[in-house]
Write a structure and sequence with these properties.
The two termini are about 25 Å apart. This protein is mainly α.
Length: about 90
């Protein structure tokens, strides 16, 4: 019997790749959010002379946005895992 004869295999692979992509983007989304918040704060400091408050507020907002992104991605990953388990059990 050929290796790819099971029709569920490609769907399982797609599901696994989707879950892996979501999981791998968690760290990246935190770093990008912090970077953008900090860069925005530095930009405000440079153009409005508010040093160091723009940097501090931008950093805090970036960290908050990063953790929000982690929560959203972790919830999405959990939902994907539950769907995968539901499909496997039926």
């Amino acid at each position: 019997m050929p290796l790819n004869s099971d029709p569920q295999k490609p769907k399982d692979r797609v599901r696994q790749v989707s879950m892996l992509a979501t999981a791998s983007s968690i760290g990246l989304s935190l770093v990008i959010a912090i970077f953008l918040g900090t860069a925005g704060g530095l930009y405000i400091d440079r153009h409005f002379g508010t040093k160091p408050w723009g940097f501090i507020i931008g950093l805090i907002l970036g960290v908050a946005a990063g953790y929000r992104n982690i929560y959203i991605l972790a919830t999405r990953l959990d939902n994907q895992q539950r769907k995968s388990n539901d499909h496997d059990g039926s």
